[in-house]
Each structure stands twice: as C-alpha cells, then as structure tokens.
Amino acid sequence: VIILFGKYLGTVRETGFWWVNPLVVKKSVSLRIHNFNSEKIKVNDLHGNPIEIAAVIVWRVIDTARAVFDVQNYEQFVAIQSETAIRTLATKYAYDASEEESFSLRGNPQEIAEELKKEVQSRLDIAGVEVIESRISYLAYAPEIAQAMLRRQQAQAVVAARQKIVEGEVGMVDMALKALSQQNIVQLDEDKKATMV
Q1: CB neighbours of residue 107 within 10 Å
Q2: What's the predicted TM-score (pTM) here?
Q3: Which end of the chain has the smaller Cβ count within 10 Å, N or C?
Q4: By the 8 A CB rule, do 30 and 78 touch?
C-alpha cells in the first residue's frame, strides 16, 4: 500500500522492483491465505447448556486499502470478530437436536459451517477480508455437565429401545390376530382377543 502524506495513492500487487517517490510510506499487506484457529470458547447453547466450541477460519485480504485504513490491525480484527461470530452462532443452535428442532451444532456440521462462514464474512467485510472457509474444529459439553449429559443420552437410548420393543410386541400380536382370523383357524370374540393380548 502506497501512502503519500497520509493520502492513499494505490496498491502495488505485481512482483518486481518498483521506483516510487522517496517521500511515500509503504505498508506491506500479505495477500496469502491465512488460518485463524480459535481457542476453545465456553458458551451456552440454545438451551442454556454450557458447551466448549472452537473453529477454524480460512481467510485472506482482498482489499488492501480497507485492511490498512478501515481497521487498526486487520489480523487482530479477524481474530476478535471470528470469536464473536462463533459465540453468536453457538447461542443460536442446540448442541443436540430434539424431535421438534431441525438443526443442531453436532448433527448438521455442513449447514452450521455455512452459517458460520456467513456470520464471519458479514463482520469482516469492513476490513476488506474474504472468508474462504469455516469449520467447527472442537465441540463438546463443558466438563461440569459432560457426565450428566452422557447419562441423559444413555437414558434417551434406553427409552428409544423400549419403544421399539413395545412396537414389535404390538405388531406381533396384531399379525397373530389377523392371521388367525384370515385363515379361519379359530374365531375369537373380543374377550378372547383381550386375553390373548
């Protein structure tokens, strides 16, 4: 970025040796692709459960003038805004989806990654930064509730298994009654059907 007495003159993007006015200030801005790997952040999900979440944001500068003039330190700006976006996203969704919910942080990684990318991009536009990709790199319940949540998941699995067993038993009785009546093996009145059930 070429600056003369505080005024932006332009950006030199081509490689090579360039002669410029000796009074200009030159600020180098890397146009390479960068990775921002966030720390684990403790935040509450949609249901208020404390979770730990971290993400990787892949970004690069596309507008050098905005990166130099519109924010004080564009790399620090990327880090702060990315962490803020991760927090915002985590509070919008539950860790695990229940029956009535469609999306969850754990169950829909592709959709959540796209949502995170949009959220981060909207915050980084002002700095001339393009978000190439974003991914959740770590997701877990906070240690203080991890055991309780594990017990809850186990209980849900037991309930689901019992529902399947009951459905199977009811289906077997229904099939037996239908087979007996269709093949005219025996005629059962309502009391005998109830006894068989």
Answers
A1: 15
A2: 0.69
A3: C
A4: no
How many Å is the Cα radius of gyration of the chain?
A: 30
Distances (CA, A) of 68 to 74, 77, 80, 120: 7, 11, 17, 19
Q: Are 105 and 93 in contact (CB under 8 A)?
A: yes
Tell me how many helices (H) and strands (E) the chain has: 5, 7
| Triad 111, 106, 97: Cα angle to 5° | 90
pLDDT of residue 146: 62
Q: H/E element holding 123? A: helix 109-124
Task: Give which of 38, 31, 68, 74 is closest to 55, Cα–Cα.
Answer: 38
Those residues whose C-beta lies under 8 Å from the C-beta of residue 57, and which sit 6 or more positions away, are: 35, 36, 38, 78, 82, 120, 131, 133, 134
Of 92, 4, 109, the C-alpha closest to 51 is: 92
Q: Which residues pair with 64 in a beta bridge?
A: none
